[in-house]
Design goal:
single chain, mainly alpha, about 90 residues
């Protein structure tokens, strides 16, 4: 009887995991090119890395997996707060 059901936990983990993976790939590409990553650039890349979650969200809605879609949406909100934190404190 927790806050999140197993399906919504899976949605949160997929949402945050995919965004973090894409952010990591972007940082590796910047590092391989020898470029310096500034905080504004990092915040922009973090915001753009959440876009594939939109596809996952609509896929879950189309398959009538509402609790998974709820988890993906919650993960997007948490990722937006993370991006806002980078922008605010960076």
């Amino acid at each position: 009887m927790g806050f999140l059901t197993p399906a919504s936990r899976l949605g949160v983990l997929i949402s945050i995991g995919l965004s973090a993976f894409l952010l990591g790939i972007a940082m590796v590409v910047f590092d391989a090119q020898g470029k310096e990553i500034q905080h504004t650039t990092l915040a922009g890349i973090a915001a753009l890395s959440a876009i594939p979650n939109l596809l996952l969200f609509f896929w879950a809605l189309r398959k009538n997996k509402d609790t998974t879609a709820y988890g993906i949406l919650l993960g997007c909100i948490l990722w937006a707060l993370f991006t806002f934190g980078i922008k605010l404190f960076g």
